[in-house]
Amino acid sequence: MTVFFKTLRNHWKKTTAGICLLTWGSHWLYGKHCDNLLRRAACQEAQVFGNQLIPPNAQVKKATVFLNPAACKGYKARTLFEKNAAPILHLSGMDVTVVKTDYEGQAKKLLELLENTDVIIVAGGDGTLQEVITGVLRRADEASFSKIPIGFIPLGQTSSLSHTLFAESGNKVQHITDATLAIVKGETIPLDVLQIKGEKEQPVFAMTGLRWGSFRDAGVKVSKYWYLGPLKTKAAHFFSTLKEWPQTHQASISYTGPTERLPSGAEETPPRPSLYRRILRRLASYWAQPQDALSQEVRPEVWKEVQLSTIELSITTRNSQPDLTSNEDFMNICIEPDTVSKGDFITIGSKKVRDPRLRAAGTECLQASKCTLLLPEGTEGSFSIDSEEYEAMPVEVKLLPRKLQFFCDPRKREQLLPPSAQ
Fold first, then answer.
1. Angle ∠(204,152,66) on CA atoms, nearest 5
2. pLDDT tens track for 41-89
3. What are the chain's domains?
4. How far apart are CA 354 and CA 219, in angstroms?
5. Coil, helix or strand for 58?
6. Contacting residues for 302 by C-beta, under 8 A, at least 6 apart
7. Average pLDDT over residues 281-304
8. Which residues face 35 on adjacent strands?
9. Less Cβ crowding at N or C end of the chain, within 10 Å?
10. Which helix (H) or strand (E) is 181 found in, with range?
11. Is residue 172 within 8 Å of residue 154, measured between CB atoms?
């Protein structure tokens, strides 16, 4: 034993390296073991639902999964889905069909052909989700098809909506299994959608919103400075200030204010009355005085116009912090001041990469249900719509309140919905 310790002391460098390697290996193995325990617990919970009996005349629920294998760096999304989500879905008793997308925009085209599904599941990031909801809402039968609930399994580099739907978790496996179990449990909440339409193209739909400005432009260049490690974010914003300063974006925006929220269920089509009631209603309308038809005046929409000079403009939904008890529906138009200093630009911009909801001091926020953004002729640059890049152009943005139903963690649903709706 003395010889053993003497050898360790004489070769202390190798001993230190060996201890470090052994510690790291033990920690890695323990992490893998914990991940396996999480998967097993989630599968056991899903199997409880799969073992439930269904009536003889009922059909098995059909789920269609749109999987983007390229959603994560190194094409790891497919592995993450197959190890952490697929077993849970199959054990839950659903008839699961997995559709792997091969190129950008394919999900939109596939949604045009999709039929006979009870659940739509998006396995990817913000870009994949945006493609799927755009495909759903561009369909001719979108009024009925958009009622199909949507599940979101966060596999991408940016998965903004996951913070609304599921509990925060630093463990990737835990986050994916929680999202998949939320689909199995079947609890949903309604979320807003933005319809964004250019002059010529078909409308694009967004769950988060639109960004246009210098913070966005610097943020998309962060990956170019990968060799600077943790300093890459600040470097991207610093080099952005060297090209041009101050960085201002000129535009004109017209908007109309919030709309009154209809009571739950008011948007649904009531059942058709009987023939007897329809005849009575027709006779009553025939004998009614003409002025009765004019008694209900339609309130005209009041539009306001703002000329803006800003470092960044964002038009966003309230899906990051939905207020399902509010009496009004609106989107937020945030105009950040063009007087931001270079130091603040670097500091705030670096934080915005992690949390785009942050705003510079002095930001003006407007509430609107519709707006029209007009850009000066010859304007260059790009928008970010749900983290996807689009050419900057004049657009019309319209809020579609509570348009889509998303599966969410039951605990999150309890926090968001009023007690009367639970």
1. 70
2. 999 999 999 888 888 888 889 999 999 988 877 668 888 999 999 999 9
3. 28-186 (3.40.50.10330), 209-260+300-401 (2.60.200.40)
4. 10
5. coil
6. 256, 257
7. 62
8. none
9. N
10. helix 172-185
11. no
* Token pair in block for residue 324: 């399902």
Say which residue the tokens 């290996």 belong to.
25
Tell me the two tokens of residue 100.
Answer: 């792997």
Residues 6 or more apart in contact with residue 36 via CB below 8 angstroms: none
Q: 373 vs 216, 249, 329, 369, CA distance in Å? A: 17, 12, 20, 13
Among residues 191, 202, 25, 37, the alpha carbon closest in space to that of 112 is found at 202
* DSSP structure class, residue 74: G
Say how far apart CA 95 and CA 63 lie, in whole Å. 6
The answer to whether the beta carbons of residues 347 and 235 sit under 8 Å apart is no
CB of 166 closer than 8 Å to CB of 385: no
Specify which residues 385 forms β-bridges with.
Answer: 210, 388
Contact 24, 68 (CB under 8 A): no
- The CA-atom distances, in angstroms, between 243 and each of 99, 131, 214, 246 are 44, 34, 11, 10
- If you average pLDDT over residues 249-277, what whole number do you get? 73
CA 204/CA 406 separation, integer angstroms: 19
How many Cβ atoms from other residues are within 10 Å of residue 197's Cβ?
Answer: 16
CA dist 343 and 179 (Å) reads 39
The size of the chain, in residues, is 422
